[in-house]
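Hi everyone, sorry if this is the wrong subforum. Our group has a chain we'd like a structural model of before ordering constructs, and none of us has done structure prediction before. Sequence below.
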Amino acid sequence: MKSASLRKKRPFDVQAFLASNGLQRKIVDYRCGATIFTQGDACSHVLYIQHGTVKLSVLSKSGREAVVAMMGAGEFFGEGCLAGQPVRMGTARAVTDSTILLVDKHRMVRLLHRQRGLSDRFITHMLARNIRIEEDLIDQLFNSSEKRLARALLLLARYGKHDRPARAVPKVSQETLAEMVGTTRSRVNFFMKKFQRMGFIDYKNGLLVHDSLLTVVLGE
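Answer:
Right subforum, don't worry. Here is the predicted structure as tokens:
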């Protein structure tokens, strides 16, 4: 019989921990298109996506909106409040029907100090977010709009997260894709038709993204 010290430890279940009855938190359901928080709102909670997809965007003084992130189940957002951010720097909207767990910022700080499993998972999240921001910047600076769109679709399909050759993408308008990529809707429409002709995407059951789309990102 193997000793307890040799047994493989189960990975920390963030979702189960944050959803536990003994934890002071709030769970809110948002319909597709609903605003979760608005740019300029006071920062009071860290948010965790239990189910659904959330879009983060920023509005400039001139009225131009830019999509800065699309996030899915298992991801945190709104964590700027932990670093003393007084107001939200952007707006968060539900792209699909979503269930969001809100934890008061002071409670979240205490949990991170006391619960090592949660702390490790949160640090991993922040590191992954930082890497993603760097990759987005490089993508914007050096890649064509076609490659940027292909990468955006793969990220929306959570490429590498699931062992499936094709993955459904949450319902996202071409206008939103254009904002994410930094191009026009007409260019997005042109490339989407091209990807469909080449078999990289299809619309049989919503929008499906195939692994083969990666060849566009990796191509010279």
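For your construct planning: The helical segments are 14-19, 105-114, 116-142, 145-156, 174-181, 185-197, 214-218. Residues 78 and 166 are 30 Å apart (CA to CA).
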